[in-house]
Design brief:
The structure holds 2 protein chains of 2 kinds. Chain A is of the alpha+beta class. Helices cover 52% and strands 15% of the residues of chain A. In chain A, helix 14 runs antiparallel to helix 15 (432-459) and helix 24 packs antiparallel against helix 25. The longest helix of chain A has 54 residues, at 744-797. The radius of gyration of chain A is 39 Å and the shape is elongated. Chain B is α+β, with helices and mostly antiparallel strands. Helices cover 62% and strands 14% of the residues of chain B. In chain B, strands 1-3-2 form a 3-stranded antiparallel beta sheet. In chain B, helix 2 packs across helix 4 (48-60) and helix 2 (14-23) packs across helix 5 (84-111). Classes of the chains: A alpha+beta, B alpha+beta. The A-B interface holds A 2-3, 16, 19-21, 23-24, 26-28, 50-51, 55-56, 59-60, 62-64 and B 28-30, 33, 47-49, 52-53, 56-57, 59-60, 68, 75-78.
Chain lengths: 884, 112
């Protein structure tokens, strides 16, 4: 480690070298004297031969590599001094990089966390969930996710595509704690291979194994961390406790770790061999695509379908549609991620052009300095190293700050992600690969942007730059063209970003301002969870359900603050997806006539504020007597009874005749239309836009299969009444519970959160992009003006007015902005169609949005040119010319 | 000066020659230069600007070790000595050189 010692004891090693060389010199002199030369002559000869002790020292030093380290240190110091001297440049360059890198770190982190680490399960990217797409009928669920035991067995035994297959079903058992029987948390029954399949070791105890699936095996279950913490205080001694679940003593054998929430369940039980309806998840063999598996499973299902027309796969026309586990969990959010990814790339490009521009301008300004240094003996390698060090310092500062910015930006973005769009298991965080990617990006950016122009200068002929007189004489034509090109591309990129954000904003405004046709203010809803004693296969359920509903509505209406109450069957508006084919005598049709239907109480229209247009509404008598009457909306009337009064006509809802509604629905029943109400808007799960569907309303009392959802319009804050509602429910039947609840306004807000997220993030990106464009235009114009000071001075001396100069500079800048706008708008026309699935109510080439964006960019461009232009106009010709 | 140009040509072999000289016994830079000249019968005159960088380079690589000692005349000088690593390296160098010069000699003879 002698070099290390030398590095820190530099003076020591220097004096030793000096001593060594002097010894040599004196020895030589002594030898000459001994040979008979006079001392004077000996000294002269020896020194001449030695040829400069300092030069020898320099050559010795060059053999040591710590010298190079020292030069590097010196380069760093020099670069730092340079960057400090030109503070405005350094600040702007670093700011641009930080914004670009910070934003991309955020988006890369989100994308990486979701696509590669969304779930803690083994090879989750190869897991698919299987659904049956019903192609023939409208109504019911269009995709069936659960399968009968025969269907499960068929898939399990005949498939060629899965490594392993698991099946599960969510359920909610009763829990007998010795004092009372109540509902336990939501859990799932799973096939015994499930925990091997998911491959997550338990936190405590053991997971469910194949042994637990054997007939006669003692019943066991496994609990998740959250339930364990919340209900049992995280007590490890709870293992081995027997819980009475659904009347069966079941032993708790394990606790799963925090990040394990498979199937949205809080605990898991092994499924009995013949458990009725199970969902399926399979791990594809390596190399098998989702499409291949779809074909294989579809073939199996259709083979089973033919010999068993009634039993397995009851759908008339269907296709098996597997979907990756991740897609089934994040759904449309994947598209949002792609859009964010594209947006951040645009932003990064803008930031890079900006930095390239700044560095280019700076390199041109430094041509003379570099030429002088080269003339004074700096080697080319030394000059390049010098410039590299400067770029590296910029990159390092930007990476550091960019990561800090990214860290906090990520927190904001994660907080903005709408609840429920990501699986509970997903943790979005910065990770080493993402940080490395950002680091690589920064270094590449700065080196490309910083080194290319410097190299160009270093390589060129230095002579003209040294002798070139006056400012700007050394500036090459190529550089000014390149800078102009960079400004144009910055403007174009930001136009594309702004158009994207603008379209989302227009769409969002339309979405939130739309007249829904009903009044969502001050409406509370809650869904009842009925105990197994209300199962539809028990005789008399319909009557008991109706009696419960009727009494609960009475009690709710009696509460202070409640103005009207209603019962309905499906989700509260605006979600409505129970639909059916519509059969009207004398009106045959081949394509299904899709009608959204609601089974409701007489207070429904009043509670939602749906005005009656014609005929009458459902009456209390209609409901209590379960009369076969129906109210329809305008769209229904217009589509199915054009130029006709529908009142008095009879209509059958095809779905009631489906075998799976068995005993609980009115078969072959025609409902008489008694009234028409105004349209209200609804939307699907997948489609963000509002639509008016044909709707039909029948009394809830005609069918017993439905769940029971209750709504109350209130004159006070609706959520304050929820507690009272809960008391009323318990007073009627202690076995009944409220499962979910909320306000209509609240659920509307939830719908808006998806588009809102995109809007906020994309809006922030385009704002940053615009800021970078301002910086870009401003710095280039300011630089050009400073180069043209002399020319402007001459013009003014020859009689040009201030306004002429102002116009000259503004026009110059504006040419660039206009070119950028033209290119950006063309690109926008081509690219916005990728946004089509995310926006509604506005065309992807909406002229208003395009117009607004162009206006904004024009104004911003003008503003950025104005300051340099005014500076140019204030040039004093005397001073400008004196610098000759 | 023909010797000067030849020593320039042989610059690559300077390291080997220095090692060989030092292998004869520890010595300081001046003496090394002198012996190089004497042994080669005035053929090599090594300039200080080549010698000292070479000595420091060889020391850096761990082939030479250096120590400050008194000379016969009682003056303090930096003495270089061969390390075991340096000895091994020298052997390899000499072997390489012999092979090279044999090969060159063969070709020259054949050409006659």
């Amino acid at each position: 480690m002698s070099w290390l010692r030398r590095l820190f004891h530099k003076s020591h090693s220097e004096s030793q070298l000096d001593k060594e060389l002097r010894f040599h010199l004196e020895q030589q002199i002594a030898d000459y004297i001994a040979a008979g030369t006079s001392p004077e002559e000996a000294r002269r000869r020896a020194q001449q031969e030695f040829g400069g002790i300092e030069r020898v020292k320099e050559e010795v030093r060059d053999t040591r590599w710590e010298t190079h380290l020292e030069i590097l240190f010196r380069d760093f110091r020099y670069a730092l001094r340079n960057l400090r001297k030109d503070r405005r440049f350094s600040f702007i360059a670093i700011l641009a990089l930080v914004l670009g890198i910070g934003a991309s770190t955020v988006v890369f982190s989100v994308v990486y966390s979701i696509f590669f680490h969304a779930l803690p399960y083994k090879d989750f990217n190869r897991s698919v969930v299987i659904g049956t797409n019903d192609l023939s009928s409208v109504g019911g669920g269009k995709v069936r996710l659960d399968f009968s035991p025969e269907e499960v067995r068929a898939f399990r035994e005949q498939n060629h595509v899965f490594e392993d297959l698991i099946a599960y079903a969510r359920m909610r058992p009763t829990y007998d704690d010795g004092k009372s029987i109540r509902f336990f948390s939501f859990g799932a029954v799973v096939t015994p291979n499930t925990f091997d399949y998911l491959g997550v070791p338990p936190l405590l105890g053991r997971a469910i194994s194949q042994e637990d699936g054997r007939p006669g095996a003692p019943p066991v279950f496994v609990m998740n961390y959250r339930l364990w913490e919340r209900e049992f205080g995280g007590d490890p001694n709870i293992l081995g406790t027997v819980f009475v679940l659904n009347g069966k003593p079941t032993t708790l054998v394990g606790i799963m770790p925090l990040q394990f929430n498979a199937f949205g369940a809080n605990f898991w039980l092994p499924a009995a061999a013949n458990y009725s309806w199970l969902q399926l998840m399979g791990r594809l063999k390596p190399g098998v695509s989702v499409q291949t598996s779809a074909a294989d499973l579809d073939a199996i299902a259709h083979r089973m379908h033919k010999p068993n027309p009634a039993g397995v796969f009851p759908e008339e026309e269907f296709a098996i549609a597997p979907q990756t586990l991740l897609d089934s969990l994040i759904g449309n959010f994947r598209k949002t991620l792609y859009i964010l990814f594209a947006a951040v790339l645009l932003l990064l490009l803008i930031a890079c052009s900006n930095v390239a521009n700044l560095l280019l301008a700076r390199a041109t300004a430094r041509e003379r300095e570099i030429a002088v240094r080269a003339t004074l003996g700096a080697t080319r390698g030394r000059l390049i190293r010098q410039l590299l060090v400067e770029s590296f310092l910029l990159a390092a500062a930007a990476t550091g700050a960019g990561c800090v910015f990214g860290y906090f930006g990520l927190k904001v973005v994660v907080a903005l992600v709408p609840a429920g769009t990501l699986p509970e298991e997903t943790v979005i965080r910065m990770s080493a690969p993402v940080l490395f990617l950002s680091l690589g990006l920064t270094i590449l950016t700065t080196i490309f942007c910083g080194l290319a122009p410097s190299l160009h200068i270093v390589r060129g002929d230095l002579q003209p730059r040294l002798t070139g007189s006056g400012k700007g004489a050394g500036e090459s034509f190529r550089h000014s063209k390149l800078r102009g090109g960079l400004v144009i591309s910055e403007v174009a990129l930001s136009i594309v970003l702004l158009i994207g954000a603008g379209l989302l904003m227009r769409s969002f405004l339309i979405l939130t301002r739309v007249d829904l046709g009903f009044d969502p203010k001050n409406v509370l809803y809650f869904v009842l969870n009925l105990p197994p004693s209300y199962n539809t296969n028990i005789p008399g359920t319909l009557q008991r359900k109706n009696a419960l509903t009727l009494r609960l509505l009475e009690r709710m209406r009696a509460l202070p603050g409640v103005t009207s109450v209603a019962e309905l069957a499906a989700d509260p508006p605006p979600l409505q997806y129970q639909s059916t084919d519509t059969i009207i005598p004398g009106k045959p049709h081949t394509q299904p006539w899709e009608t959204h239907f609601e089974m409701c109480s007489d207070g429904y229209f009043q509670t939602l504020g749906l005005p009656l247009l014609h005929g009458r509404l459902l009456s209390e008598d209609d409901v209590s007597a379960a009369r076969d009457v129906m109210v329809v909306n305008e769209t229904f009337s217009r589509q199915y009874f054009p130029n006709e009064d529908p009142i008095g006509h009879k209509v059958k809802l095809d779905i009631f005749d489906k075998p799976y509604f068995a005993a609980a629905a009115p078969h072959d029943t025609y409902f008489e239309i008694v009234g028409i109400v105004r349209d209200s808007k609804t939307r699907d799960y997948d489609n963000p836009s509002w639509q008016s569907f044909p709707q039909a309303f029948v009394p809830y009392s005609v069918a017993g299969f439905n769940w029971r959802v209750f709504m109350a319009r209130t004159s006070v804050d609706p959520s304050s009444l929820l507690k009272n509602m809960g008391q009323e429910v318990r007073a009627l039947d202690p076995g009944v519970q409220i499962s979910t609840s909320g306000t209509l306004e609240g659920s509307l807000q939830e719908f808006y959160r998806g588009p809102q997220f995109e809007l906020v993030v994309l809006g922030a990106f385009s704002f940053i992009g615009l800021a970078l464009v301002i910086i870009g235009i401003f710095s280039v114009m300011a630089y050009t003006v400073s180069l043209q000071t002399h020319e402007i001075g001459v013009r003014m001396a020859l009689g040009a007015q201030q306004t002429n100069i102002l116009r000259l500079v503004l026009l110059n800048g504006f040419r660039l902005v206009t070119a950028g706008i033209v290119i950006g708008v063309c690109a926008g026309f081509g690219l916005t169609r990728f946004l089509a699935s995310q926006i509604s109510g506005v065309s992807t080439t909406d002229p208003w949005t395009f117009g607004a964006v162009i206006t904004v960019v024009v104004l911003v461009g003008l503003a950025a040119c104005l300051l340099p232009a005014r500076r140019a106009a204030r040039v004093d010709p005397l001073i400008a010319l004196r610098y000759e | 000066m023909p010797a000067q140009t030849k020593s320039e040509l042989l610059r690559g072999t300077l390291d080997m020659l220095v090692l060989k000289i030092v292998a004869l016994g520890p010595n300081h830079g001046y003496a090394i230069a002198q012996r190089l000249r004497q042994i080669s019968k005035e053929f090599f005159t090594v300039h200080q600007g080549s010698l000292y960088p070479a000595l420091h380079r060889l020391e850096d690589r761990g082939w030479l070790s250096a120590k400050w000692r008194d000379t016969d005349t009682g003056r303090e000088a930096k003495f270089y000595d061969l390390t075991s690593k340096g000895r091994k390296h020298l052997e390899i160098e000499i072997l390489d050189w012999e092979q090279l010069s044999n090969a060159v000699a063969l070709i020259l003879k054949a050409a006659e």
